[in-house]
Amino acid sequence: MSTSPVYRTDLETLPLLSRGKVRDIYDLGDSILIVATDRISAFDVVMPTPIPNKGKILTQLSAFWFDFFKDLTPHHLISTDVRSFPESCAPYGDILEGRSMWVKKAKPLPVECIVRGYLVGSGWKDYRKTGAVCGIALPPGLRQAERLPEPLFTPSTKAAEGAHDENISFEQMSRLIGAAPAARVRDLSLEIYKRGAAYALEKGIILADTKLEFGFLDGELLLIDEVLTPDSSRFWPADRYRVGENPESFDKQYLRDYLVDSGWKDSDPPPELPPEVVENTTARYLEALERLTGRGLA
Questions:
Q1: Residue 83 domain-assigned?
Q2: Can you give the pLDDT at residue 164?
Q3: What's the CA gap between 94 and 71, in Å, rounded?
Q4: Is 229 in the same domain as 115?
Q5: Contacts of 10 by beta carbon, 8 Å cutoff, 6+ apart
Q6: What residue stretches are annotated with the SAICAR synthetase/ADE2 N-terminal domain (predicted)?
Q7: Whether residues 183 and 227 fall in one domain
Q8: Among 61, 141, 220, 272, which one has the highest count of C-beta atoms within 10 angstroms of its own C-beta?
């Protein structure tokens, strides 16, 4: 089994479908291989320094949540056991072990499904300027990191590489994918968030917000990509949460804060990360895994 950080995969005999900020995706014919590397991005910029075992943590957490939500919605995961993968993957077993998912080939929806349970990040900035989040009006007087009266569904478009996602209204989303699918993914996203947040709180973690993705296969709506990971969600330690403050986190918000404090701007070349930032980021991801699943890194 490979123990070195994996920044990029080049599985030469498998057709590369796409290379995202974190995932390398390969075409297996009627299915897909998703490999979670140890790359990390912040402000839509991929850093040049890997975070050791990050891809394995993301894969293990997603597999946990796909199973957790299986009674609520079907999903695209077939297996994370490399021994069960198609024969064409066998030459790359050492690289794939622990960081890859064999999944059904669904057609992704052209939207990202974001659920916000707390007033933080871009939502907090939006609220301070407009009294609303993504056009949804909120009561006056709310403070930073305050729990919202009800979770908000705020979809966005999927931007092309190098660009930023754009928030859209539910009505725009309905025009884009159809009224019935839009209502279905909104309701599913909110229910996934609520169930996931309730479970996480039992483990001492506040799930502040999350981003979900869905796709269609043979007319069936599937939960796809990753689910409630530190890359797609904000996780806060419940015992150190304070309204009015920027909370500590188990996710890459720590990295974002470091970059802001360092004076780096997303128009600058991405910097190499110092060893202590790499170590602290790794520790946060690992603690999220251990708290949520009750298990360490497999």
A1: yes
A2: 67
A3: 33
A4: yes
A5: none
A6: 17-267
A7: yes
A8: 61
